[in-house]
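User: For my dataset I need records formatted as: sequence, then structure tokens, nothing else. Please produce one.
Assistant:
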Amino acid sequence: MAERITKQMLGIETRKKILYLDQSFFSLAARKQPPAWVQDVIAAITELLDLQLLAVPYSFSHVAEADLYKGRDSLVSFIQRLSRGHDFWPYYKVEERQTLKAFEAFLAGRPTAYVREERDAISGDLHDWDGDYIVTVFTHESDYERKRESKHTSVNALLDAIEPWGTSSRTFEEDMELEFQDAARIYADDYATKAARLYLRDFAALIDSPISAEVVGNLITVAQAVKADPKSIGAFLSSQHFRETPCRQLSARLYSAFKERLRKKAVVLPASREAREKKYSGLMFDVQHASTYAPYCDAFFADNAMAELMNYYRVAVEKTYGCRVFCASTRNALLAWLNSIKTSMTPEHVDGLRWAYVRYRKLDKA
């Protein structure tokens, strides 16, 4: 993490814009010779990072996806350098935090609308200004073949499902309902499997059970703490409180919108399975990135297909969460957005830069 100069030290309030760059951008940017437009975007981002106007945190999902490719270590190093030590909580931590908050609201009888807070998803206060030194925790690639095989299994399951999605007679709303039901079922089934293994003294379940099994365990702890009926957990998992958590709501919308677009032929499946695998092998990662982090960002860069899906009227990420969505085909709009951040810099911000950093002592007032 970065050594930071706090807002209290500066005596001013400053909020950085938060930009999420997905793996498609980092993969281009980490090349020996990135495309010219990528170099322009990196230059604009770097300047805004120096001016303490922007944060580009990286996530566990970036590292997990990089783990699947040769050259992983150099890619992860590049991501961490550009992110300057700022990071999001891992996706499973964000999901857990949202679920526990929603359960507490459910038990207290509060409104179903989820109250988003940056601390749900962001580690530390990235709005504090960066110090001169950045320290990141780097681990080298390991178990490459096993991770590749695990992804291959998941992609095969996705490819088996994609074709029936395109011929299904279900509506968007029915697909949404199925997504929520499946999410609740996975939580319950994974916890039940873990509990059964432990009952049979299979203590390896404490190590290798799915992370989702922990969520129900934590819900039980919360229910016990407030002396709630244990049946309230089942009621919660089928409630609107559960469905309104951003990770569940956005994930369900993205998958349901993708299915609808398949049915409407707005998305055309490649003829061969190999071509489908090449096109959709990153879909699960893309949905995980977007549904976990977009609600906490001011802007999100995705590949062209994912950006189109995120902007689809059924999803409407910008309208719902206030997060602009960019991609390679809208790179000029991205550069314009980045430039608008710089032009909005206030005189107070400039004075703070002069005070905090020697290199800005001669900076003209905005």
